[in-house]
Write a structure and sequence with these properties.
The chain is mainly α and 148 residues long. The protein has five helices and two strands. The chain has a two-stranded antiparallel sheet. Helix 4 runs antiparallel to helix 5.
């Protein structure tokens, strides 16, 4: 069995091995190809089976990370188009990535704010449990609202 960091040989790897190495499913690999997210056409064997090379695997990992940060497929596709087009569009690539970074930063700030509320609630529950008066924590009713 090949290790994830084992270099891809000249013949490439199967779709199953590419999925294992990139951490995405076979279905996702096929989808990325159909959706125009790959920067170079995926090689095929004489029988039509996909063969992935290191460039493919590296690009798929980038796509997966962009997707995991919430970048829309449309934006990933545009980024792939720009990369595929080659030199001369670096400013547009940079603008696309900076815009996405701003979106991710805003989401992180929102998540941090929500985490602060969760931490506060944990502190309240720990404090009440340690004080032995957790029974004073109320359960929401129509009269009291949902502040538990």
């Amino acid at each position: 069995m090949l290790e994830v960091n084992t270099p891809v040989g000249e013949a490439g790897v199967t779709i199953a091995e590419a999925a294992r190495r990139t951490g995405v499913s076979v279905h996702t690999l096929r989808y990325y190809e159909r959706a125009g997210l790959v920067v170079t056409p995926v090689d095929r064997t004489a029988t039509g089976r996909r063969r992935y090379h290191q460039l493919d695997l590296d690009w798929i990992k980038i796509c997966a990370r962009l997707r995991a940060t919430g970048m829309p497929i449309k934006s990933i596709r545009r980024y792939a188009e720009l990369v595929s087009a080659g030199r001369g569009n670096e400013e547009e690539r940079l603008a696309l990535l900076e815009s996405h970074r701003a979106d991710v930063t805003a989401k992180l700030a929102e998540i941090e704010e929500n985490l602060e509320l969760i931490d506060h609630k944990i502190d309240v529950y720990r404090g009440r449990l340690e004080a032995g008066d957790a029974d004073r924590l109320w359960a929401p009713t129509r009269e009291t609202g949902a502040g538990a």
